[in-house]
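<instruction>
Derive structure tokens from the sequence

<record> Sequence and structure tokens follow
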Amino acid sequence: MIIPALNEAATLPAVLESLHAAVPEYEVVVVDDGSTDGTADVARASGCAVLVLPFNLGIGGALRTGFRYAVEQDFDAAVQLDADGQHDPSMIPTLIAALEGADFVVGSRFATKNSYEVGLTRRKAMQLLEFSMRVLSGRTFTDTSSGFRAFGRPVLEYFARSYPSEYMESVEALLAANYAGFRIAEVPVQMHQRAGGTPSAMRFKLIYHYVRVMFTMFTRASRRRAPIPASVELPSASAATGTGPAA
């Protein structure tokens, strides 16, 4: 399990407790993205591995660090999980099982009707991204910005080198993986509203982020299907300070 975390000390204990209860057999690594509230200490207290970034890189940089760690530890697969309590650990086996027929699995909030609420403006923007993804990839995804995902080994190696670093990187990553020829699947999952923490971007910044990601998507589309890079020696994720013991 790869958990990027920025100032999530208040929500992380409950998330880790529920995670250990639901899937105790899986190792957990928390990537502390320059937190100032003791997030790393909370993670260490739970007994999971901790990678501490010296300053905030953003969720994309934190995830790339987690992917590098997974590759170095020779994991066959990994699941991305948020630290704010949105993702239900009981759904993790569903994501892992779907990797039997795919390289990259997205847990979708909207594949079926559920109680997950999204504001009108944000939902319209998400629908625009879904439409753009359909135009650019020829595929329909119901939740392009989901942060609840599973990755097989080939995708871990790919994203350890190339995972996008900007906010809303999840949309760019989905398009990049599609162009690289990976098998992508969606499975319906239940998600909760945030239990706490700080959102990745404030409302007044959302327009900028949506415009930027749209521009990036169409720019990437012009390059079309880039080949999957060969495996290369990666910079060590363990170089991040504060690595703790494995769960």
About this structure: Residues 2-239 form a domain with the Spore Coat Polysaccharide Biosynthesis Protein SpsA; Chain A fold (CATH 3.90.550.10). The helical segments are 12-22, 39-45, 59-72, 92-98, 120-137, 153-162, 169-179, 203-223. The CA atoms of residues 137 and 175 lie 7 Å apart. The chain is about 40% helix and 15% strand.
